[in-house]
Write a structure and sequence with these properties.
The chain is an alpha/beta fold. It has 13 helices and 19 strands. β3 and β4 form a beta hairpin.
């Protein structure tokens, strides 16, 4: 069937609700002065407010997401001695680490294997894209697909918890997504206030720009400041009625919106033209390369949670890694995307170490699951990059949550090794099996969050653990 996939405890009080007559109403009132500026998505700017308080060098994470699931056998966990019904066409190559082999698709990462660790024994239990993504990003154990998440993803949780720190003097948001994974995850009961400041588009295009940041016209800045007097007029209201702190939230949201709009630091952090041309070339003059370069710039400037997806045209016909035979000729699609993927990830990891960010910044590269070790053959549903004409029988691999690989670098971890192993066909872990809960607990540990003893109240006021089952992976901390 076609599956195109465009288709003592620390207890934190829950966030204020967004009732019809509550915070949302006040936000709309308080930001009304900005409405005439045509600021699309200005309400998303409130994600940066969260009174956020971390110093610039606080631990941070860049997560590179491969939506649809990457074939582990054709990348980080080759099985050269199995039969042709499992083995792909790619040769196995050695890396800079003795005993660690990749496929020929990853020569650049093979060269810097001493700067990364491959976890080969990742697994989860959800076979579909929505449930698999929710399991990996929020720890939701349900295996059935559903239209929206029940639990907040780890990025939103980290943003929320860190908002309890001292006031933040950095005008940049704490949590930024550049073409981020948004389809199957989100803030759930934490509310949109802790969602990412989202940047969409191709950063490699000469016309690319990030709207709503760093206005350079002093007259426009002055005009904005004058319009903010609307907020001051709201202060004349009797705050005795403000039972849930709605006006306090409005203060934060308006302040952060003004900071993003008027601070030259925000404009500079997002401006890739500030980078040396050779550095831009090193990452790759394409969307993925420039996304990862922007990610490095942003964490260096003080962003603490950074996400980006390797999706879109560079993936092939259907725009993701969902390499069913009906979508892609998997081996043609893997060849097509490999160079841009290999170059961008390699440049990011090398850059993190060369710039002395390797203790502060953890890089994680993953998707929601792997692909079936056994190759399937089905008719293509359409011609395009990585796919033959409709009706052409071609090879593919289906969803496989039982075993897959992800890559870790920086974060002060020990690198130059792999963790765990799968069986001779790559079907199941046989050594050091790690769950989605372990994945999440490891990320939280890097951010200084004790996932075993941290709870957030849901909309019903129930304390909910941020990781229900899982422990930090000892080899990665």
């Amino acid at each position: 069937m076609s599956d195109p996939f465009h288709a003592s405890s620390v207890r934190c009080a829950g966030p204020q609700s967004f009732g019809q007559g509550g915070r949302r109403g006040f936000i709309k009132m308080g930001l009304a002065g900005f409405a005439s500026l045509s600021l699309p998505g200005l309400l998303r700017l409130k994600s940066a407010t969260a009174s956020a308080g971390a110093p610039k060098l606080k631990k941070s994470i860049i997560m590179v997401w491969k939506p649809g699931g990457c074939s582990h056998l054709d990348t980080y966990d080759p099985k050269p001695d199995i039969g042709s019904e499992y083995r792909g066409p790619f040769k196995t190559i050695s890396t800079s680490v003795p005993g660690m082999n990749f496929t020929e698709l990853l020569p650049m990462q093979a060269r810097i294997a001493d700067k990364l660790t491959v976890l080969r024994s990742m697994h989860q239990t959800a076979p579909g894209h929505p449930a698999g993504s929710m399991q990996m990003l929020s720890g939701d154990p349900e295996t059935r697909d559903k239209p929206k998440p029940k639990y907040p993803d780890w990025m939103t949780v980290a943003n929320y918890l860190r908002s309890k720190d001292a006031p933040r003097d950095n005008p940049l948001p704490r949590y930024v997504g550049v073409n981020p994974p948004l389809e199957y995850n989100g803030p759930a009961y934490l509310g949109d206030a802790y969602s990412p400041f989202t940047v969409m588009g191709d950063p490699n295009l000469p016309t690319f720009s990030v709207p709503n940041i760093g206005l350079s016209d002093p007259n426009e800045v002055k005009r904005l400041s004058q319009r903010s007097t609307l907020r001051q007029r709201l202060d004349t209201l009797d705050r005795a009625f403000d039972k849930q702190g709605e006006l306090g939230a409005l203060d934060q949201f308006e302040t952060q919106a003004m900071s993003l709009l008027t601070s030259p630091l925000t404009r500079e952090a997002f401006d890739l033209t500030k980078e040396d041309e050779r550095t831009r070339d090193r990452y790759g003059r394409n969307a993925w390369g420039q996304q990862l370069l922007m990610a490095r710039r942003l964490v260096e400037a003080g962003v603490e949670v950074m996400t980006t997806s390797m999706s879109g045209p560079l993936c092939g016909r259907v725009g993701n890694w969902d390499d069913h035979a009906v979508n892609h000729h998997i081996f043609d699609a893997m060849r097509y995307r490999a160079q841009a993927y290999d170059q961008a990830v390699t440049a990011l990891i090398e850059d993190i170490y060369e710039r002395g960010l390797d203790q502060q910044v953890l890089v994680v590269v993953t998707g929601e699951f792997g692909r079936t070790p056994k190759i399937e053959h089905s008719p293509s549903t359409g011609e395009g990059i990585g796919s033959g004409p409709a009706g052409t029988t071609q090879p593919g691999r289906d969803h496989w949550p039982r075993a897959f690989s992800n890559v870790w670098a920086g974060g002060g971890i020990q690198t130059g090794r792999f963790i765990g192993a799968t069986d001779k066909r790559g079907e199941d872990p046989i050594e050091r099996a790690c769950s989605a809960g372990d994945f999440l607990a490891t990320i939280y540990h890097h951010l200084g969050i004790d996932s075993a003893n941290t709870f957030i109240n849901d909309l019903n006021g129930r304390p909910t653990p941020i990781v229900d089952r899982g422990r930090p992976i000892a080899e990665l901390i």
